[in-house]
Amino acid sequence: MRYMNRLGKEHLGAALIITLGAAVLLLGLTYETGTLRQMGAGFLPVTFGGLMIAVGLAIGLNAAALPGRTADDPASVHPREAPQWRGWACIVGGVIAFVVLGRFGGLVPATFFSVFVAALGDRENSLRSATALATVVDIFSVAVFHYGLRVQLPLFQWG
Amino acid sequence: MHQSLMDLWYGFGVALQPGNFMWSVFGVLIGNLIGVLPGMGALTTISMLLPLTYVIAPVPAILMLAGIFYGSQYGGAIGAILLNLPSHPPHAVTCLDGYPMTVAGRGGAALGITMMSSFFAASVGIVVMIFLSPLIVKVAFKFGPTEICAIMLLGLLSGATMSRGSPLKGIAMTLFGLVCGAVGTDVISGTMRYTFELPDLADGIELGALCMGLFGIADFLMHVNRVKVKPIQARMSMKEMRPTRSELKQAFWPMVRGTTVGTLFGAMPGTGPTITTFIAYAIERKLAKDPSRFGKGAIEGVASPEASAHSKTQVDFIPTMSLGIPGDAVMALILGALIIKGIQPGPQLITEHPDVFWGLIASFWIGNVLLVVLNVPLIGMWVRMLRVPYRYLYPSALFFICIGVFSTKNSLFDVAEVAVFGILGAIFLALEFPVSPIVLGFVLGPMLEENFRRAMLLSRGELSVFVEHPISAWFLAACAVLVLAQLYAYARHFRVDPGHGGNPGLVVE
Questions:
Q1: Residue B503, domain member (yes or no)
Q2: Nearest chain A Cα to B397, which residue?
Q3: Over 80: is that where the pLDDT of B450 sits?
Q4: A17: nearest CA in chain B?
Q5: pLDDT score, position A1
Q6: Given an 8 Å threshold on Cβ–Cβ distance, is A70 in contact with B501?
Q7: Which of the listed residues A59, A76, A93 is the one where a domain comes to its end?
Q8: Does A99 share its domain with A133?
Q9: Which residues in chain A are contacts of B432 at CB distance < 8 A?
Q10: Mutation target vs B (from A9, A43, A57, A122; most B CBs, 10 A cutoff)
């Protein structure tokens, strides 16, 4: 069962690379390719895309030919762990919060909510501890980044 | 040689100027701190402080970045020895014998030996740098676009194959990085490539955003709710840090051997310090009279790997500065930072910007002295820092990432790039792809393209020119050797152990 998961992973990885490579190649063809002598904008992108497809195929073949064997260094592999949907959503959400609130709210709300949302990703953080952390970081940020380093993000802005 | 010494003297003059010195100290301190904290490596820190380098002059900027780099090496050993927590890969080996020493009450001595090995190794590395670099420069004047292309290919290939995991995946990631480097306006033709009608992408992807996403955010994504921190019992005093005479004697030759390993590998582009630590440890084990001591607190197992990591770190700068070929992802970042400041690393760096080059070398030595001086009293503080729970660390770090990237170009779009690369990085890591080669490809891509184009223009489309030029041919031969070595290892492994998992000694970062 375990190696079947591994097998899936390898194939997934190979598929990802092949897909990316194909996308790069196809888009690259829309730019002028030119010749070796006079390379256009598309020459190297097409080459890279093609190489990616080739490597992707190699990875896939490698996985198919030798099931249960990966060339990976076992020390680097995380043991099969449960997906952390909450953690992931909150971390990515934190960055997005910064972007959105930076645009529509200003430095103060952006700081607060990016820390707050990210902190909520950790199971051990309560709403209270997240709020406390966010407040502390916010105060620090206003002092250091706004007044100290003069970062060009207004404290508050509306749209 | 006399000229080198004169230049070095000049370098000390540059490095000791108050402004430069201050930034050097800052970098070293931050690097040390980050090295102690698990999860945030030199790469993350340098990316975070990259925006800072845009507003300060080139010399203090690179002094700071370099300080972070080797400062973090010192810090990493502390976590590895006291807590069995390698802050980043090169110190994984140090845990093996360092932690048992702490358990046996000799943790202080282990730290002391580490510091001595590090200082010794770094000094040797610096000496090598001093005398080797001008020699390289002499050869380097013969470097035309063909040669630059060939050496970049070697750098990319070794970076891809030597990083963690399968070499094929490393190559895939390098290619991805190369493509990311192509995003934006093509310099020669003015065509917008892969910008998807987004005007913000006209200048390409922001280096800091890419790195912070791939290493910072992806790191958080991998570690959230999964980090387990052990309670700390360590309490260090200055006296405890002095190793006994016999320990010193035991550690001396391993230290020298480790330094040799690190220096030899240092010159090779694409290898990180981690692989040198594994090799150093393996050598010590083979040479020891009583190999069973290893893993239980053998001081050789601490001295040698640390020495190799530190000398490697210093020597790493040689190919970066004198040839413009970064040894690993961190060097690639530093290289990127230099390019942004308008300094083109490569053969002309030593002659055109002697203050940068020699100031840097001098600062290495000063920085290492500083680290030894600082670490002794500050160890207590570092240990206390380790007590901050991860759940407070990462949201704060996330915010610092956001604001850091934003302040580079006052662009919230760049921060959005961080999110994108964070997700991508996490996906790659989950599928067991190494992410460091992406940075290598990203930084070297534009240069590779430019030189390749030029080479083809000059040779009128003849690819054979790469083999006709002797220097380029040598580098291509090295590439071929690398590929063959990988194929050989693959075939051998297949024949010996068809059903077994990977051989850890072979493909390690």
A1: no
A2: A115
A3: yes
A4: B172
A5: 44
A6: yes
A7: A76
A8: yes
A9: 9, 13, 70, 72, 76-77
A10: A122
Q: Given pLDDT bands bounded at 50, 70 and 90, which one contains residue B162?
A: low
Whether A142 maps to a domain, the answer reads yes
Indicate the residue of B398, B412, B507 with minimum beta-carbon distance to A103: B412
Contact assessment for residue B38 and residue B385, using Cβ atoms and an 8 Å cutoff: no
Do A6 and A55 fall into the same domain? yes
Q: Which of A37, A118, A121 sits opposite B456 (nearest CB)?
A: A37
State the pTM of this model: 0.74
B100 has pLDDT over 90: no
Q: Chain A to chain B, count of Cβ pairs less than 8 Å apart? A: 233
Nearest residue on chain A to B508, alpha-carbon basis: A73
Chain B residue closest in CA terms to A48: B175
Give residue-wise pLDDT tens across range B334-356.
888 888 888 877 777 777 787 88
Would you call B394 and A122 a contact, using CB atoms and an 8 Å cutoff?
yes
**Does B92 sit within 8 Å of A31, measured CB to CB?**
no
| Residue A71 with chain B: CB contacts under 8 Å | 165-168, 490, 493, 502, 507
Tokens of B405: 């990237």
Considering the domain architecture, whether residues A7 and A71 belong to the same structural domain is answered as yes
pLDDT of residue B128: 81
| Per-residue pLDDT tens digits for B222-261 | 777 776 554 444 454 445 556 677 777 777 888 888 888 7
From the list A9, A24, A39, the residue facing B431 with the nearest CB is A9
- Cα B81 from Cα B117, distance rounded (Å): 14
* Residue whose tokens read 């959400």: A93
Residue B282 counted as domain residue? yes
CA B353 to chain centroid: 23
- B chain contacts of residue A146, beta-carbon cutoff 8 Å: none
Bigger pLDDT: A73 vs B50: B50
List of residues 6+ apart from A57 with CB closer than 8 A: A14, A18
Mean local confidence (pLDDT), B111-123: 81
Same domain, A52 and A106: no
3-class DSSP state for residue B192? strand
Domain stops at, among A58, A76, A94: A76
Q: What is the rounded average pLDDT for all residues in chain B?
A: 77
Q: At what angle do helices B354-385 and B58-83 cross, to 10 degrees?
A: 30
Gap between the Cα atoms of A54 and B459, Å rounded: 28
Torsion on CA atoms B502, B506, B508, B509, rounded to nearest 10: -150
Given a contact cutoff of 8 angstroms between Cβ atoms, the answer to whether B369 and B382 are in contact is: no
> Is B502 inside a domain boundary?
no
Domain holding A139, by residue range, is 85-148
Residues of A in contact with B48 (CB under 8 A): none
Test A81 with B392 for CB contact under 8 angstroms. Answer: no
Residues B361-419 pLDDT 10s: 787 778 878 877 777 777 767 666 666 777 887 888 888 888 877 877 788 888 899 89
The identity of residue B219, as a single letter, is D
- B223 Cβ partners below 8 Å, 6+ apart? B39, B390, B394
Domain assignment present for A154: no
Mean pLDDT, residues B459-468: 81
| Cα of B405 to nearest chain A Cα, Å | 11
Say how far apart CA A69 and CA A64 lie, in whole Å.
10
Highest mean pLDDT among A34-43, B283-292, B446-455: B446-455
In terms of DSSP H, where are the helices of B37-106? Answer: 42-55, 58-83, 92-103
Give the lowest-confidence range in A134-143, B8-17, B102-111, B449-458: B102-111
Residues on chain A touching B410 (C-beta within 8 angstroms): 152-153
ipTM entry: 0.84
Cβ separation of B169 and A13 shorter than 8 Å?
yes
Which of B169, B182, B453 lies closest to A45 in CB terms? B182
The answer to whether residue A155 sits within a structural domain is no
Distance from CA of A146 to the nearest CA of B (A): 11
